[in-house]
Write a structure and sequence with these properties.
The complex is a heterodimer of chains A (201) and B (209). With 201 residues, chain A is mainly β. Chain A has no helices and 16 strands. Classes of the chains: A mainly beta (201), B mainly beta (209).
Chain lengths: 201, 209
């Protein structure tokens, strides 16, 4: 049964009509960490959306100075070892005003045709009130033509009692569709926090 | 009464079951005459800034100052706007380019950050004082994460582009945390000099489910 108002179809066939404005940002999945070694999103990443956004809300690490990371994989694979080239930089400032600057990432913070996990946050504090929040954009993961670009922006409460705004961007150097993503700490568990996956229409 | 179409429940119990999108416009404040401050206070004037959403997003559209020597700033409150003085530690950096094409750089902005400071957090301005020619303004956005948490500090991330009084374009990235485990329930925006002459402020909630 359809619902028609003033000659306009609002819903029919079990769905809102495509002409009804519903907003372009659709929540697809929520994962809540509880002493989790990894958080994986293994479904919902496909050709439905050209852009996916992962929101990180109060991610808390169990181990002090841990790095928050991600990797992706194709098909039903579980190796999470795709080739990535990335760049990054961070602005930082200490609570005691002892150090502040902008620094370019180097070394293990960025990848150059490497298959390891990409850092999003680094040297995170694990005091009870310390955490990380931010977001990661993944563009057209289903493309069979292009590499898969990503952009991450994070604010973190570092283990040296300062704030870091961290910018990471790069591409997964594959033309195979990306279908899954894994988040983890490089050391210890994700003690708590929420990760949400949205599709952008 | 439920609305069911093709055996799918579209709406029931006073709410839609079908997805209506995850970004919900909560409040728009349009400044059309000089205002000293613009405030979003939970529970006042239809503003929601509590545990309804895990993430809030402020959008700023063509914020125009009344003075030629200031910038837009924010502060937060944990007592529904009685005091805007939450301790914050933040970073602030900028990139700029002038219309003449002979000055370009990216720098950390030490005068725009806070180290446990309780004063306002600069979002624009500082070395890049906002221009107040009729066609000059600033636009951008500010994310506030998990403001209702009573466990964690409250992270914020902002990004702006602005024109300044010397005819430069500036991009400014500011982020940090409100170093409190009390719930943040209000945000207030102001100019560091003069008034907000005009502009649109929007508050969105990003849905939890």
């Amino acid at each position: 049964m359809g619902v028609i108002s003033n000659g306009t179809t609002l819903l029919d066939a079990g769905a809102l009509d495509s002409g009804v404005a519903t907003g372009a940002m659709v929540l697809l999945s929520t994962a809540t960490a509880s002493s989790s070694a990894t958080i994986d999103f293994t479904s919902g990443i496909d050709s439905t959306y050209k852009e996916y956004i992962f929101k990180f809300i109060s991610i808390h690490n169990a181990t002090d100075a841990a790095d928050f990371q991600f990797q992706v994989d194709t098909g039903s694979n579980t190796s999470y070892n795709q080739t990535i080239t990335s760049s990054g930089f961070a602005a930082y400032n200490q609570e005691d005003d002892s150090a502040r600057s902008v620094a370019t990432h180097s070394g293990s913070a960025v990848l150059h045709q490497e298959t390891g996990f990409q850092d999003l946050g680094r040297s995170l504090g694990n005091d009870n009130d310390q955490s990380l929040s931010g977001q990661l954009h993944l563009y057209e993961p289903s493309s069979a033509t292009f590499v898969k670009h990503f952009i991450g922006v994070i604010n973190e409460y570092a283990n040296n009692d300062g704030t870091n705004q961290r910018f990471v961007a790069g591409y997964v150097n594959t033309t195979t569709a990306i279908t899954r993503i894994r988040f983890k700490m490089d050391s210890g568990n994700i003690d708590s926090g929420t990760i949400k996956m949205y599709g952008i229409k | 009464m439920a609305i069911i179409s093709n055996a799918v429940t579209i709406a029931d119990a006073g709410a839609f079951s079908a997805s209506l999108g995850s970004q919900v416009l909560i409040k728009t404040i349009t400044v059309s005459s000089a205002a000293g401050t613009v405030s979003f206070v939970n529970g006042a004037s239809s503003v929601v800034l509590n545990n309804t959403y895990p993430l809030y997003l402020f959008k700023f559209i063509n914020i125009h100052p009344s003075a030629d020597d200031g910038g837009l700033a924010v502060n937060f409150s944990v007592d529904t706007g009685s005091n805007y003085n939450v301790a914050k530690t933040s970073t602030n950096f900028e990139s700029y380019h002038n219309e003449a094409g002979d000055d370009v750089a990216t720098n950390y902005s030490p005068s725009g950050d806070l180290a446990q400071g309780t004063g306002v957090q600069h979002l624009t301005g500082i070395s890049s004082k906002m221009g107040y020619d009729n066609d000059q303004s600033a636009s951008g956005e500010l994310f506030l994460f998990n403001p209702s948490s009573t466990t964690f500090v409250k992270h914020f991330i902002s990004e702006f582009t602005q024109s300044d009084y010397r005819n430069y374009t500036w991009r400014r990235n500011v982020s940090g945390y409100c170093n409190t485990t009390s719930a943040v329930d209000a945000a207030q925006f102001s100019m560091t000099s003069g008034n907000i002459d005009s502009g649109i402020f929007k508050l969105y909630g990003i849905k939890d489910s």
